[in-house]
Design goal:
296 residues, alpha/beta, eight-stranded mixed β-sheet, 12 helices, 50% helix, binds nicotinamide-adenine-dinucleotide
Length: 296
């Protein structure tokens, strides 16, 4: 397996932009691709802002930031991934959409390249099955936001080789992350445990047990979590949470994973959380009042 020098990241949303940032700061050449040109512009801005925040805390120098930004290349042409040694996919949490991408990546990337998915829940074995290199396909699940969170969960598909696992683990460690390894069952470790908690928080709200504020305060102060489960769901994206719960429900076949109707309704209404301005909480009010305060 070749030494990893160039990393391709597909999907420039919350996760892909953070993974691209991590890779660029840690000395890799990075190609960042998105189907939506606006997402690439937003990603470039959010990466620059995030790097400047780290600089203001004394965690990065301006020289490191300048070098990292020079190594980061945005593209909308998958052919640019021909030079990639390692690809991380962070597009929509849909098996069909991800499989289509893996078919294309398998054709375009060099034979030695590892194809990793940042999926939160979808079977790595099934994504690998559409390629001619299932032994080089793996799950590399970063937490949100990737530059800050310490964990990378690695998921071995049925055919993932030891060589692929070791190369992925080394890469995660070069990013400064701690690795845990999961077998390939829906939701892996973190979301298998986290999503039922978030779903139960929705049921608690749906059945009128308590207000959203009290549910979040109860879990924050009562179980020492930095964010309440509803606030966390907004941060992750309610659409992402719903997709993961559907994968858990279908993959593990237990009714306890069925998504709460309130979560389904919020997503149907376009309330996807922070990224859409409204989810369980309304962030538009916050930004309006912040802007008003800034004007005063
Ligand atoms: N949000 C989280 O907290 C979180 C945490 C860990 C893992 N994940 C996983 O990471 C992945 C991405 O999640 P996200 O929150 O960054 O989503 P997001 O909606 O913020 O970003 C997804 C991006 O992918 C792009 N995209 C979609 N289909 C594409 C395609 N075929 N080709 C190129 N670009 C395409 C979209 O334009 C969008 O910019 C999902 O699989 C999700 O389950 C999310």
């Amino acid at each position: 397996m070749e030494e990893v020098k160039t990393i391709g990241v597909v999907g420039a949303g919350q996760m892909g932009s953070g993974i691209a940032q991590l890779a660029a700061v840690n000395g890799f050449q990075v190609w960042l691709l998105d189907a939506d040109p606006k997402a690439l512009t937003m990603a470039t801005n959010s990466i620059s802002n995030s790097l400047q925040r780290l600089a203001s805390k004394g965690q990065l120098s301006q020289a490191v930031i300048g070098d990292a930004l020079k190594r980061l290349h945005c593209t909308s042409n998958l052919k640019d991934f021909g030079t990639a040694d390692f690809v991380v996919e962070a597009i929509a949490e849909s098996e069909v959409v991800k499989k289509n991408l893996f078919v294309e990546l398998d054709k375009i990337t060099k034979a030695s390249a590892i194809l990793a998915s940042n999926t939160s829940s979808i079977s790595i074995t099934r994504l690998a099955s559409v390629t001619n290199r299932p032994h080089q396909v793996i799950g590399m699940h970063f937490m949100n936001p990737p530059p800050i969170m310490k964990l990378v969960e690695i998921i071995r598909g049925a055919a993932t080789s030891d060589e692929t696992y070791n190369a992925t683990k080394s890469l995660a460690e070069r990013f400064g992350k701690t690795v845990v390894c999961s077998k390939d069952y829906s939701g892996f470790i973190v979301n298998r445990i986290l999503m039922p908690m978030i779903n139960e928080a929705f049921f608690t709200l749906y059945t009128g047990v308590a207000t959203k504020e009290d549910i979040d305060a109860g879990m924050k102060l009562g179980t020492n979590q930095p964010m309440g489960p509803l606030e966390l769901a907004d941060f992750i994206g309610l659409d992402v949470c719903l997709s993961i719960l559907r994968v858990l429900h279908a993959g593990l076949g237990d009714a306890k994973y069925a998504p709460c109707p309130l979560l389904v309704q919020y997503v149907d209404a376009g309330r996807c959380g922070r990224k859409s301005g409204v989810g369980v909480y309304d962030y538009r009010q916050v930004s309006k009042s912040t802007k008003q305060a800034a004007r005063l």
